[in-house]
Amino acid sequence: MLCSVPYVLGYIVIISAHNVWMLYFGRMLTGLASGVTSLVVPVYISEVSHPKVRGMLGSCVQLMVVTGILGAYVAGITLKWRWLAVLCSFPSCIMLLFMSFMPETPRFLLNRNKRAEAVAALCFLRGPHADHEWECQQVEASVQEEGLNLSEFKNPSIYRPLLIGVALMFFQQITGINAVMFYAETIFEEANFKDSRMASVVVSSIQVCFTAVAALIIDKTGRKVLLYISGLIMALSTALFGLYFKMALPNGNNSSNSDVWFTLNSASPGTESSISWLAVVSLGLFVAGFALGWGPVPWLLISEIFPLKARGISSGACVLTNWGMAFLVTKEFHDLIGFLTSCGTFWLFSAFCCLNVIFTAFYVPETKGQTLEQIEAYFGRI
């Protein structure tokens, strides 16, 4: 609820901006709010959800993110940027209004020894006919004292889920999702899809559709299956991206120029347009694959695997890793192309996607249908 304040203030600064520094400041405020909500929202949802639907509800975090991006793209076709900022300020106000009716999570309340409030919260969340007393006892059995000492990170039940969560966030960004998305419009232009703004809508629609599919099936298929399928699709699509650049730039042009699209334009006339369908297919496959697994599932898993007393600091470390890697991959993408060539860069992304699958197979636990207490107990045993 507090995040609504920097969201609204940030958009007010953007709306009233007279110079670029006001835009920077407004973006800093909205970025601060986005960072906090990306940490808190998955945890809140996992703690209030029933195990049978926790996967679906947890995946709705990413679904709402991509739906919001799609909405901004669609609105941006007709609205000027100031009016777009006005529109974007409304969701945070709506969040503030509706969250005022929501209870604190039962696990948090029990950790604060507020048992009556925890039972009331469960009654609100599960309905009057559920066995609230039994669920309270299950949570109480695993609730530990407040406070976490640094020495406790030697405990496998603390450091193993933390390492898995940080690795998931690292692998999510190292697949190159942001680099690919930033060049989506240009890929469509190379394929003679001239309305680049509509191209953004098409890409975002693919994201929304496949994220929705993931949300609907994740509690049936499990988390690991979706990560396998997603990783393999992304590995194939980024390999095809590399093949496209290799074929479009056969004369060594894709080696030294850091701007891959100036390089494309320097290729032999007609070369890139004759195979531009390959880039479009690769882009569609990549976005669909990411949305199916590696988009929503890591955010869901970091809200499930941490013990209650380490959930705050561990989730914070994972979110910091995610946004830090997103910044690093985005900033260094052009330099990477200059060093490895454009085809080599996308083949590197493909190799990381294969590593994603291997990492999932050996280290990521399946959490489908388990309570948060059972997941915590699992890490305590291994």
From TrEMBL:
<feature type="transmembrane region" description="Helical">
    <location>
        <begin position="313"/>
        <end position="330"/>
    </location>
</feature>
<dbReference type="GO" id="GO:1904659">
    <property type="term" value="P:D-glucose transmembrane transport"/>
</dbReference>
<keyword id="KW-0325">Glycoprotein</keyword>
<dbReference type="Pfam" id="PF00083">
    <property type="entry name" value="Sugar_tr"/>
</dbReference>
<dbReference type="InterPro" id="IPR036259">
    <property type="entry name" value="MFS_trans_sf"/>
</dbReference>
<feature type="transmembrane region" description="Helical">
    <location>
        <begin position="225"/>
        <end position="245"/>
    </location>
</feature>
<feature type="domain" description="Major facilitator superfamily (MFS) profile">
    <location>
        <begin position="1"/>
        <end position="368"/>
    </location>
</feature>
<dbReference type="InterPro" id="IPR005829">
    <property type="entry name" value="Sugar_transporter_CS"/>
</dbReference>
<feature type="transmembrane region" description="Helical">
    <location>
        <begin position="162"/>
        <end position="184"/>
    </location>
</feature>
<keyword id="KW-1133">Transmembrane helix</keyword>
<feature type="transmembrane region" description="Helical">
    <location>
        <begin position="20"/>
        <end position="45"/>
    </location>
</feature>
<feature type="transmembrane region" description="Helical">
    <location>
        <begin position="336"/>
        <end position="364"/>
    </location>
</feature>
<keyword id="KW-0762">Sugar transport</keyword>
<feature type="transmembrane region" description="Helical">
    <location>
        <begin position="196"/>
        <end position="218"/>
    </location>
</feature>
<keyword id="KW-0812">Transmembrane</keyword>
<dbReference type="InterPro" id="IPR020846">
    <property type="entry name" value="MFS_dom"/>
</dbReference>
<dbReference type="InterPro" id="IPR050549">
    <property type="entry name" value="MFS_Trehalose_Transporter"/>
</dbReference>
<keyword id="KW-1003">Cell membrane</keyword>
<dbReference type="InterPro" id="IPR003663">
    <property type="entry name" value="Sugar/inositol_transpt"/>
</dbReference>
<feature type="transmembrane region" description="Helical">
    <location>
        <begin position="81"/>
        <end position="102"/>
    </location>
</feature>
<dbReference type="GO" id="GO:0033300">
    <property type="term" value="F:dehydroascorbic acid transmembrane transporter activity"/>
</dbReference>
<dbReference type="InterPro" id="IPR005828">
    <property type="entry name" value="MFS_sugar_transport-like"/>
</dbReference>
<feature type="transmembrane region" description="Helical">
    <location>
        <begin position="57"/>
        <end position="75"/>
    </location>
</feature>
<dbReference type="GO" id="GO:0005886">
    <property type="term" value="C:plasma membrane"/>
</dbReference>
<keyword id="KW-0813">Transport</keyword>
<comment type="similarity">
    <text>Belongs to the major facilitator superfamily. Sugar transporter (TC 2.A.1.1) family. Glucose transporter subfamily.</text>
</comment>
<feature type="transmembrane region" description="Helical">
    <location>
        <begin position="275"/>
        <end position="301"/>
    </location>
</feature>
<keyword id="KW-0472">Membrane</keyword>
<protein>
    <recommendedName>
        <fullName>Solute carrier family 2, facilitated glucose transporter member 8</fullName>
    </recommendedName>
</protein>
<comment type="function">
    <text>Insulin-regulated facilitative hexose transporter that mediates the transport of glucose and fructose. Facilitates hepatic influx of dietary trehalose, which in turn inhibits glucose and fructose influx triggering a starvation signal and hepatic autophagy through activation of AMPK and ULK1. Also able to mediate the transport of dehydroascorbate.</text>
</comment>
